[in-house]
Design a protein that fits this description.
Elements: E1 2-5, H1 11-22, H2 27-46, H3 48-59, H4 71-79, H5 83-103, E2 108-111, E3 116-124, E4 127-131, H6 140-153, E5 157-161, H7 167-176, E6 180-182, H8 186-195, E7 205-207, H9 212-221, E8 226-227, E9 235-239, H10 245-256, E10 263-268, H11 271-284, H12 289-298, E11 299-303, H13 307-317, E12 321-324, E13 338-341, H14 347-352, E14 378-386, H15 388-404, H16 408-433
Parallel strand pairs: 1-11, 4-5, 4-7, 5-6, 7-8, 9-10, 9-12, 10-11, 12-13
Antiparallel strand pairs: 2-3, 3-14
Helix pairs in contact: 2-3, 2-8, 2-9, 3-8, 4-7, 5-6, 5-7, 6-7, 8-9, 10-11, 10-12, 15-16
Length: about 425
């Protein structure tokens, strides 16, 4: 990790470094986009033929019979999983499901004036594809985090895809009752989910993280198939004035071991604490090649001139994961994917078992959205119903807005109802006088 100071002689360099950190994200996708465009185009046009060609070349899938994972395979994986891990998966699933249920939006209906009722109904999307990476590490937790909110939302068809699913991931699929699981990944897997092939029917939305090719493919298909977000390398920021250097370092190293491109940042006003954290990360990452490389490339300790500046910097960075000292600190947090409070709250707990989703915005996108949630799998459909008195009260005002916009047919459609409502009210009044 390198140390930068926002005050004094290093201020200019610090400003440049912060600006570069704020711009992290999309540039790397541009480098792979030409290859991804070709793959996606091939699969969209060629269906199974193209998909299986890429699956054989890139995933090593030479036996088409193994393309769809059978229920028996998933059951065998569960049976062959250590009892302790089965219990951990079950506990994590329970925590994630309980949190998702609390997030579920509600249908409602209310009077919005005389003769007008408005509200919303909640409907699940029909189908979703859950992408589970299977590269450097098996990630059964990603299947839990993507499939469970979809189940809570009521999605009827949940498809899991992973190019080389680990036994642990198949065991998690059995635990969740997943019935469609395919051995496919990369840009060709995303294209198959987005456009469908003879063997794999298209889905309405694709969720889950992946490598650069997966992320670039998601960006490419996003106008034809909904996606959750464009997830880049893992990010962590710890903003602390009184944390323990060794504990802070453990979280920085933990997130750094995901990817050599991971971003790990410590923000404080205390230079001595920053130096201690740097020393601890170096010591703790000695035998972790991936974390060591990530910290070398993208590890930064920022010494701010004041607590207020440290907070401003943190919000500018809009990190995927953020650790702060106390619950009071949450009040100043404006942009973060998920917040961890205090020294006991190890960030990896959120990766596995706390309940909030670990599929989180990266590259500064926490400025505009939070992590994956049950809300990503539902549609909020608004409802409005007028009675005669409602159209009589509001209709002419709406028609005047139509006139102002030059949309004469809008105004005419409204005034026809206003006229009918006036007639209905006149008849009602006549019957009352009689």
């Amino acid at each position: 990790m390198r140390l930068i100071r926002t005050q004094g002689r290093g201020a200019r360099d610090a400003a440049a470094a912060l600006a570069q950190l704020e711009r992290r994200g999309g540039a790397a996708l541009d480098a792979v986009m030409p290859a991804v465009q070709r793959i996606v185009k091939d699969v969209r046009r060629g269906g199974d033929r193209a998909m299986f060609r890429y699956a054989a070349k890139l995933d090593g899938l030479t036996d088409r019979e193994r393309f769809r994972v059978s229920a028996e395979e998933m059951a065998e994986a569960w049976a062959g999983t250590d009892a302790g891990l089965r219990d951990a998966l079950t506990t994590a699933a329970r925590q994630i499901r309980a949190f998702a249920k609390k997030q579920m939006p509600k249908a409602w209906s209310a009077r919005a004036g005389s003769g007008l009722t408005v509200g919303q109904v909640v409907r699940a999307i029909d189908s979703v594809g859950c992408y589970v990476p299977s590269g450097r590490h098996p990630l059964p937790s990603t299947l839990l985090m993507t499939a469970i909110p979809a189940q809570v939302a009521g999605v009827a068809r949940i498809v899991a895809v992973s190019p080389k699913p680990a036994k642990e991931t198949l065991a998690a699929a059995h635990l969740l009752g997943i019935t469609e699981f395919y051995r496919v990944g990369g840009a060709h897997g995303i294209a198959a989910l987005a456009y469908g092939t003879e063997t794999l029917a298209r889905v309405d939305k694709i969720v889950g993280p992946g490598n650069l090719y997966v992320t670039a493919a998601k960006r490419l298909v996003a106008f034809d198939c909904a996606i959750d977000m464009l997830a880049g390398p893992t990010e962590i920021v710890v903003t602390s004035e009184r944390g323990d250097a060794a504990e802070i370092a453990t979280d920085l190293v933990a997130q750094a071991e995901h990817d050599p491109e991971a971003v790990a940042i410590f923000v404080t006003t205390r230079e001595e604490l920053a130096k201690q954290v740097i020393a601890e990360t170096e010591a703790q990452s000695k035998r972790n090649a991936v974390a060591k490389e990530a910290l070398r490339r993208n590890g930064v300790a920022i010494v701010a001139g004041s607590v207020e500046e440290a907070r401003e910097i943190t919000n500018r960075l809009a990190p995927e994961h953020l650790t702060v000292d106390s619950a009071e600190d949450v009040e100043w947090v404006k942009s973060a994917g998920s917040v961890f409070v205090g020294g006991w709250s190890a960030q990896p707990m959120g990766d596995y078992i706390s309940g909030p989703n670990h599929t989180l915005p990266t590259g500064g996108m926490a400025r505009v959205r939070g992590g994956l949630s049950v809300n990503d799998f539902v549609k909020l459909i608004t409802v409005q119903e007028y009675a005669a008195e409602g159209i009589a009260e509001l209709g002419e005002k709406a028609a005047l807005l139509g006139d102002a916009e030059g949309l004469t047919a809008h105004a005419a459609a409204i005034r026809m109802r206003v006229k009918r409502a006036s007639g209905a009210n006149s008849k009602a009044g006549g019957r009352s006088r009689g």
